[in-house]
Amino acid sequence: MPPSSAPAVPPPVAGRGAFILLAVAQATLIFTIALIMVPLPRIAREFALGSAGVLTLQVAYGLPFSGLLLFGGRLADRFGGRRMFRAGLGLLGVASAGAALAPGFETLAAMRVAQGAGGALAAPAALALLRALFPAPAGFARAMAVWGGVSVLGAVAGFVSSGVLTHWLSWRWMFLIPIAVALLGTFALPRLLPADVAGAPAQRPGLDPLGAASAALGIALTSFGLIASIAQGWHTPATYVPLAAGMLALAAFARFERRQRDPLLPPGFLRDPCRAAGLFGVFLAAAASVLVEFVLLLYLQQALGWTPLATALAFLPFAVVLLIANHLAPACIARLGAAGGASAGFVVAAAGLALLAGIGAGTTYWGGLLPGMLLLAIGISLVFCGGAVLAMTHAAPHQAGLAGGVMNTAMELGPTVGLALLMAIAALPADSVAGYAWAFGSAAAIFLSAAAATARLARRAADGRHACHSFHAS
């Protein structure tokens, strides 16, 4: 259907309800990653875990989630978004119930892995459904601007709410939220999204099992090695063995894809400048969000002696500003364009990171940390919104699941690759707090460089030299 004849928005009732449901599901998938961070010390004490067990719980959701996202996108493109979305939510709900009732460490770890697999099915399928709901470029761009902000809000909500629930009730209660969302999605979606809207894609790609397996292994093993480096350094087998194995698997993936008639990741898919800029923006925004949570979690509890509950509540203003910024960001993206809005977000986020780089042994929360946190919240909201529009709106309808899988993979690699590299910088000074300052300062410099790059892209789009998508594209 040509853009001029496609509706810019979905039907008023069912379409809006379906969008809200999909957005809540996306936020919940990211929420479920973050909910383990604050209660992890209490879980470790309850199950008498050593460092290996703690690391396993840290990565048990994220590794299958990030590793299987590309394959999840392929399944959505082949079998339909609604079917895979319901399957993913169903698996997430069952696994969350198992995690809430887990009698021991092994069961909890296995249920976290199953949660991640369910999330990998649901996340790209949700984006494929979103593409079907908003067939016109303008409507889809608006939806993606909201979508990007919803994702980062989910991460912060998981961090804050898990700390509150763990303090007042038990860490087991935090799994009720993904259970509730899974039930809501499983039963409400057929009424909100008719089968013909989520029907079979125009082209049915092959499954590419070799590509799927090598990509999943490569991403998961590399991510595990990078996460292990944060706690154990770069010179231990727990770090370099999975890193080496992951690199080999990714090399095998690249080789398999060159030989495939219908590859999992088509050649040239990442070469589009707008898509590449959007994916890099999503990657950096996710990395910065987790960096501030991880570093300030350590600083507030270890340097200032705050309780886990107080630490979680310290991020409440960050979450509130994110919520407000997410509401306003689509209008900013509409005015500045996706690349221009992302560039502005990079500048604001860099200012926040620069303020956080002033952290020292005597830095207080209200005067020293909070201003930088709030600026960062505004900045990464703009970056996420603009990046999501750039990453998704050039994808063909039959590749909506693939584009969603790639974007969510970038979102997942940010906290692993980005955090590992920045924490390696933080380990250079002997003093840990000075290391935190180095990490924030390095992140600020990276964000300023990204701002310059996306500003050039925005100028090219304004001059008509590249059609980076805006709300006004036809």
Task: State the gist of this model.
By secondary structure, the chain is mainly α.
CATH architecture of the largest domain: Up-down Bundle
Radius of gyration: 21 Å
Proportion of residues in extended strands: under 5%
Percent range of helical residues: over 70%
- Integer count of domains: 2
Any low-confidence stretches, pLDDT <50, length ≥5?
Answer: 1-13, 196-202
Largest sheet: none
Distance between the termini: 12 Å
Corresponding CATH superfamily of the largest domain: MFS general substrate transporter like domains
Report the principal-axis shape.
globular
Helices and strands, in N-to-C order?
Answer: HHHHHHHHHHHHHHHHH
Topology (elements, then pairings):
Blueprint: H1 14-34, H2 40-46, H3 51-59, H4 62-79, H5 81-100, H6 105-133, H7 137-168, H8 176-192, H9 209-232, H10 237-259, H11 273-303, H12 308-314, H13 316-336, H14 338-356, H15 365-392, H16 400-426, H17 432-462
Helix pairs in contact: 1-6, 1-7, 1-8, 4-5, 4-6, 4-9, 4-16, 5-6, 5-8, 6-16, 7-11, 7-12, 7-13, 7-15, 9-10, 9-16, 11-15, 11-16, 11-17, 13-14, 13-15, 14-15, 14-17, 16-17
Membrane topology: Multi-pass membrane protein
Pfam family, one: MFS_1
Domain Major facilitator superfamily (MFS) profile: 18-462
